[in-house]
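Just scan this pair:

***
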Amino acid sequence: MKFKQIFHKVIQILFPLAIGVILLWYLYRNQDLSEIMQVVKKGVRYDIIFLSLFFGLAANTIRGLRWGMLIDSLGKRVERKNAVFAVWGNYAINMVFPRVGEIWRCGVMSKYEKIPFATLLGTLFVDRIMDTLVVSLLTLCLCVFNISFFRNFFAENPPVIIETLYTLLSSVWTYVGIILPALIFWFVFAKLKHLSVVKKIIGIFRNIWEGFKSLWKIEHKAHFVIQTLLLWGGYFLYFYITFFAFDFTKDLGIRIGLIAFVMSSIGVAVPVQGGIGVWHFMVISTLVTFGVDVSDAGAFAMVIFAIQTMWVVLVGLLGIVALPIANKGHETPV
């Protein structure tokens, strides 16, 4: 059993990482690495990049504060420092286990704040839905006002995702895969709800729904909206300020910076450690579309991703270490 668990963990780490690394190799295989290293050594204002890191830290801190507001709406005020440290740690863990950081975040808050894990999971869904909504709205606006960019982007980069979706939608097995689980789900919860295990599962779903309803229970909804705007404003500056660290991107302007930011955000959403490979592809392809040399675009993506990843891990480890120290003497017995 132990071997199976270890094997499963290793697969969880290596499979998505392998996909990212293969994509990374594909992107850089034909590039002149000597030109990229020349930019890395002499063509970067690292002081500007380091300045941008604090906007990323501020954004993740605001995310923690906003999450605390969601949890408060459930009827129990939580320690803001716990929510902030948990969010910091969340991102560090995701660098090893994609999307596991979110589960850890809920687990550690449940431990220190004595709130049911499933309820916290509901608030996390709200947190992520808001992110999806913001990125979707930004993408929609950019599509409307920058249609030529997206036309060129998909012309130069085959729309594999769209082709895959078309294949899935035209296959009968896709619909079987949707309808069959739905029928099983209905049968279990409609006909077997008297069983104790089903009752427990129903209880978990109810707790998740309670957490999900937290958005409607927030007393100061305007504060939530303001924090959301500040959160994404911070993420944008975290990315856009780095444009001024390179001669070939500093004059591109805020419009192109916003397009590159949205494309990079879509890349990060892919369940690969830190979006490695996918993030690089989105950023490099976008910059090249706007006339940046492919080697320069490769150098930009390489430098920014490496520094921001190290920063996220460093701050995340700080959050993980700080949590038990900040809650010394208040831990819930296991």
User: Anything to note?
Assistant: The chain has a mean pLDDT of 79.
